[in-house]
Amino acid sequence: xxxxxxxxxxxxxxxxxxxxxxxxxxxxxxxxxxxxxxxxxxxxxxxxxxxxxxxxxxxxxxxxxxxxxxxxxxxxxxxxxxxxxxxxxxxxxxxxxxxxxxxxxxxxxxxxxxxxxxxxxxxxxxxxxxxxxxxxxxxxxxxxxxxxxxxxxxxxxxxxxxxxxxxxxxxxxxxxxxxxxxx
Length: 183
Prior knowledge:
About 40% of the residues lie in helices and about 15% in strands. The protein is of the alpha/beta class. Strands 5-4-1-6-7-8 form a 6-stranded parallel sheet, sandwiched between helices. A two-stranded antiparallel sheet has the order 2-3.
């Protein structure tokens, strides 16, 4: 997590106001599970969820941006208080540019976590492209940083802890714990 690539991007990481997350392969392990009635279900890591909540309380806007569809993503976004849950998106860079414009956030203040080829397309419109450990090789090579954890298995929590460490907030959380607040 704290290798040379993280050191090189530390300043840009501290400037992040918007963290945009792909869903399948980032917040999930990329598997699609269907129940007997054909309904899609997905597995989300609860520690990633707390990492998201910690970032929200630190003032980082979180958005989901996915080419996939299905109610599980929207349900998870609602549970986490994420207002910007963009699903079924075919042109991720265009959707991301519109979101940045809507929020008044510059590309240099935006980080994106993605795992597959369609996520490489956002690199020109973000300050940081970050990949989970199990992202496809072209994404790992094109990313500004690669996490040690796999998608759906704590990758976003790892990133959240790194951002909070760089902002001087992690020590207090480690010492005092966390309480959910209705900010």
